[in-house]
Amino acid sequence: MAVVAAIVTLVMALVQPDPTATTDADEKNRPSTSMSADSTSVSPTPTPTPTPTPPPGVTLAFAGDVHFTGRTETLLLDPAGAFGPIADTLSAADIAMVNLETAITVRGAEEPKEFHFRAPPTALDALAAAGVDVASLANNHAVDYGPTGLEDTLAVIAQGGLPIVGVGADAASAYAPYRTEVRGTGISFFGISQVQDRTYAAWTATDNSPGIASTADRGRLVDGVAAATAAGDVVIVYVHWGIEGDPCPTEEMASLATDLAAAGADAIVGTHAHLLLGAGYLDAPGSSAYVAYGLGNFVWWRSRASSDDTGVLTLTVENGVVVGAEFTPALIDAAGRPQPVSGAETAAKQSAFADLGGCTGLLDAPTTR
Questions:
Q1: pLDDT band, residue 215 (cuts 50/70/90)
Q2: Secondary structure (3-state) at 279
Q3: Rounded to whole angstroms, what are the CA distances from 262 to 128, 165, 278?
Q4: Contact predicate 283/254, CB 8 Å
Q5: Contact 53, 316 (CB under 8 A)
Q6: Which residues contact 15 (CB under 8 A, 6 or more apart)?
Q7: What is the rounded CA–CA span in Å between residue 249 and residue 274?
């Protein structure tokens, strides 16, 4: 009997369902462990799309007339150091620009005029080494050595060592801007001469002849500025204008500045008077254009105590408006090279530069932003 009871117990154990086993029905009825809309589990938070930040301000440095003749000719023996320590100020800006007041040639016959300036192609090496990114040749000395000198000048420019504006094989190229971008901000640089001398009369570029860009074809310049503005660029116009030795702008200069601002120019800077002239915002309805009427000599062939004051004007541009202007003063030394001043002299010369605006009619702030 004991044996029979054991067998019965064993059989019952074999047919009794395992409480830990599951059937297909059990699997269907078991609550899901996956995430659902009703689940109290927290889903990962999507990463928000970052709000685009506006591009930072662009810094543009400008200095005056440069050439390598007379006492400055020997500076090209060392192109890398031709500008001296002022190169640090030029290099610190996103873009730096000067007026290169010379033909780039070692050949040619002098034009019938009093002064003649020319320099070898290493002049462009000196500019580039100093941090200059673009230069204007729209001035009254770009064709001092006639057609041969102009041919050489254009050939050097075509090699692409340094962007040059204001001169070309025809009007289309002479009046064309140099365009670049800095951190997404497009910038167009134009060069133009308003000095009505031999170069202006004989060597203004036309549709069929080479030369400089001048206000003899003012409409072409204004149209170019308007087109660059319509494309969304910050527009800079470097102008050769004024009367030598006159510390105040002429009505002709003011008229041109007004026309350029109306076409959309954001900054208008110039040289030719051999003096520093005033700077500020144009006093015109709705205008935010910044005008620097004269930046004086910079790397200069002869000494004149009245014209040795110079410097670098650095503009900060945001959304097409000049929001900051800093003048770094310098004095042209015996070698013709601009040397930055220091100490109390810096503040004194910056104050003197600010005071030059008295006869310009310019404002300390734009009329609109």
A1: very high
A2: strand
A3: 33, 22, 20
A4: no
A5: no
A6: none
A7: 13
- pLDDT (0 to 100) of residue 41: 43
Q: Tell me, what's the pLDDT at 368?
A: 66
Give CA–CA dist 286/368, Å, rounded: 5
Residue 246 buriedness (CB in 10 A; 0-12 / 13-18 / 19+): middle
Helix H or strand E segment including 219: helix 218-230
Residue 24 scores a pLDDT above 70: no
pTM: 0.85
- Pairing, β 178-182 against β 211-212: unpaired
Chain segment 272-301, per-residue pLDDT in tens: 999 999 999 999 888 899 999 999 999 999
DSSP letters spanning 322-346: EEEEEEEEEEE-TTS-EEE--THHH
In the block, residue with structure tokens 């297909």: 24
pLDDT band for position 336 (50/70/90)? Answer: very high
Distance CA 217, CA 183 (A): 33
Q: What is the pLDDT of residues 78-123, one digit of tens each?
A: 999 999 999 999 999 999 999 999 999 999 999 999 999 999 999 9
Cα–Cα distance between 345 and 368 in angstroms, integer?
Answer: 34
Indicate the class that CATH gives domain 58-359: alpha beta
Structure confidence at residue 318 (pLDDT): 96
Contact at 8 Å (CB) between 162 and 120?
A: no
Q: What is the DSSP annotation of 138-206?
A: -STTTTTTHHHHHHHHHHHHHTTSS-EESEESSHHHHSPPEEEEETTEEEEEEEEE---SHHHHH-B-B
Helix (H) or strand (E) holding 314: strand 309-318
Cα 57 versus chain centre, distance? 11
